[in-house]
Specification:
The structure is a homodimer.
Chain A: E1 11-15, H1 28-32, E2 42-46, E3 51-53, E4 61-75, E5 81-87, E6 92-93, E7 106-119, H2 120-129, H3 131-154, H4 159-175, E8 184-185, H5 190-197, H6 201-213, E9 217-220, E10 223-226, H7 229-238
Antiparallel strand pairs in A: 1-2, 2-7, 3-7, 4-5, 4-6, 4-7, 8-10, 9-10
Helix pairs in contact in A: 4-7, 5-6
The first copy, chain A, binds a DNA duplex (30 and 30 nucleotides) through helix 6.
Chain lengths: ~250, ~250
DNA sequence: CGTGCGCTTGAGACGCGTCAACGTGCGTGG
DNA sequence: CCACGCACGTTGACGCGTCTCAAGCGCACG
C-alpha cells in the first residue's frame, strides 16, 4: 500500500436494498434504508490494496463494511503513515469526515472487501426524520471518541502492553467476547500493526517472538492463536516490566 | 488535584438566559436557549481544584466553559492520569460522554472558572426541533475526533515537537490566530503538561529550559512568552533531530 | 519567617528506534 | 516444474532519547 501508485477506485458498484441482508436490523445501513432515504444505498467490492477514499477527496458518503478488512490512516507532515485503526465488518468508515466537506483520512482495503455506501444526502434526509437513526449515528461518533481516548492511553505503554491490548481487541472483535484458543488470521502486516501502535516493525516482530517463547501465543506470519488469554490480559493490565523508556 | 480528596462540587449555581451574554450568538448555549429548551440553562462558578464531574458519575448534561480553564482526564488502570486536553472558554465539556449514561472522563478546574450547564433533556428537545443545533453539536463531536487524531500523532514525536506543538496550540487558542510576543499565563502545571503530552515532568521542564536557552521562549513558572514563533513552528514541523528513541 | 509544593537540574539506566543482514513464502516466467 | 525475484518477516548490534531516582532551589502560602 504505497503512497500514491494505485488510484482510488471502487469496483463492481451496484444498487442495494437492505431487506434480507445478513447483517440484520442492527446494521446502520438497515436504519438508513427506510423512509425517504430508502433505496439510495449501493454496494461495492474492493480488492486488497484498493483505496475506498483518500484524505483530501470530497467526502459525500459514509460506508458500512460488510466484508473483508480496512486500514484507516492519515499521512503525517513528515510523510509517515499514522494508522488510526483497522475496520472490520459491521464497522462504519468515514465517520471522522462526516462533518467535513473532504475526507480527513484515507481508507484502504487490506483484504478483499465489500462496503455499503450511504450517500450524504440520504443521511441528511434520514437524520431529519428518524430520531432513532440520529441516535445511532451520534452513538457511533461517541464510540469513536472513546476509542481514540483509549488509543491515546495505549501510546504511553510498553511495547508488550500495546501488542497485548491489540491482540485482545482484535480477538474480541472478530470472534465476539469469547476468544478461545482458535487460530485466526491477521489481515494486516507487521508494518501496519507498528504504524497503528506507534512501534517499529522490528519491535512488533520481536514482541511477537517473545510472547510466543513465553507460551502466550502461537503465530506464523498472518496466522495467530492466543494460547494464554490470562497472561495477555495480565500484560495488558500492568505491563511486563514498567511504564516506558527506563 | 489528587485522586479523590476533594468531592465533586459546584458552587453558586444560578439560572441563566443567554440573551445579552458576552459570548454572543455563536455560542452553543445561545443556540440551545431557544424554542422549548429556552430558560433551562444555569451557570455555575468553580474554584481551582473543584471537579465539575468525575468519571463514572451519572452524566446528565453538557457544559459550555465561559471563563477560567479546565483539565479533562481519565484515570488509567494503573492509577495514573491521562490528560485528554485543556478546555478553555468557548469550548464544550462533557461531549465525550454525550452518548453515555455515565461520564467517561473527569473535568477539574485548574483556575477559577465559570460554566453554563445544558441539561440533557433540554439538549434532546432542541435536537428534535432545530437542525442548526443538531449540526453544531455534531460538528463539535467531529472536531473532537479530529483533535484526538492529531493528538495520536503527537504521541509519536520527540519531546521538543510535542512541547512546541502544545505551546503553539495554546497560544493560538487563547489569543486567536495572531500570537505576538505577548507574555501569557499557563494555568496548568508542568505535571499536567507532561500527563497531556505523554512526558515526564522533568522532561517538560528540561525542554522549556532548552527552548529558553535557544531564545525561542521566555518563561518563568506559569508566565510564558513566545519570542520566536517561526522557530517553534519549525521544530513542530520537522522535529529537531529525528523521529524518536534513536 | 518557616514550610511545603512545584520546578529545576544532574546522573545513570534502559527500552526502543535505526541500521543491517539473513530467512522465508509466494508469484512470475523460463 | 524449478529458478528466480521480491516483499515481508526475523534476528542481531548499537546508539539515543527519555524515564527514574535523587537532590537542590524558589516562590507562595500560612
Amino acid at each position: 500500500m504505497p503512497a500514491v501508485p494505485t488510484p482510488t477506485r471502487r469496483r463492481r458498484t451496484e444498487p442495494l436494498r437492505c431487506t434480507g441482508c445478513e447483517r440484520g436490523v442492527d446494521c446502520l445501513g438497515a436504519a438508513l434504508d427506510e423512509g425517504s432515504a430508502a433505496g439510495r444505498m449501493s454496494r461495492t467490492g474492493l480488492e486488497r490494496g484498493d483505496h475506498l477514499y483518500r484524505m483530501g477527496e470530497p467526502s459525500d458518503s459514509l460506508y458500512v463494511v460488510s466484508g473483508g478488512a480496512f486500514k484507516s490512516y492519515v499521512v503525517t507532515p513528515d510523510g509517515g503513515e499514522q494508522v488510526l485503526g483497522f475496520v472490520l465488518p459491521g464497522d462504519v468508515l468515514g465517520i471522522d469526515s462526516l462533518t467535513h466537506p473532504h475526507f480527513q483520512s484515507s481508507a484502504v482495503a487490506i483484504a478483499p472487501a465489500r462496503v455499503c455506501r450511504m450517500p450524504a444526502e440520504a443521511i441528511r434526509l434520514r437524520i431529519g426524520e428518524s430520531p432513532d437513526f440520529r441516535e445511532r449515528l451520534t452513538a457511533r461518533m461517541g464510540r469513536e471518541i472513546q476509542r481514540l481516548q483509549r488509543l491515546l492511553h495505549l501510546g504511553r505503554c510498553t511495547a508488550e502492553q500495546r501488542v497485548a491490548v491489540f491482540l485482545l481487541n482484535q480477538s474480541a472483535q472478530t470472534e465476539g467476547v469469547g476468544f478461545a484458543g482458535r487460530a485466526q488470521r491477521l489481515p494486516m502486516s507487521r508494518r501496519d500493526i507498528g504504524q497503528f501502535l506507534g512501534l517499529a516493525t522490528e519491535t512488533v516482530s520481536r514482541v511477537f517472538t517473545r510472547l510466543q517463547d513465553s507460551g502466550a501465543l502461537r503465530c506464523r506470519r498472518t496466522s495467530i492463536e492466543i494460547r494464554n488469554v490470562e497472561r495477555l490480559m495480565e500484560i495488558a493490565r500492568v505491563g511486563l516490566p514498567l511504564r516506558r523508556g527506563g
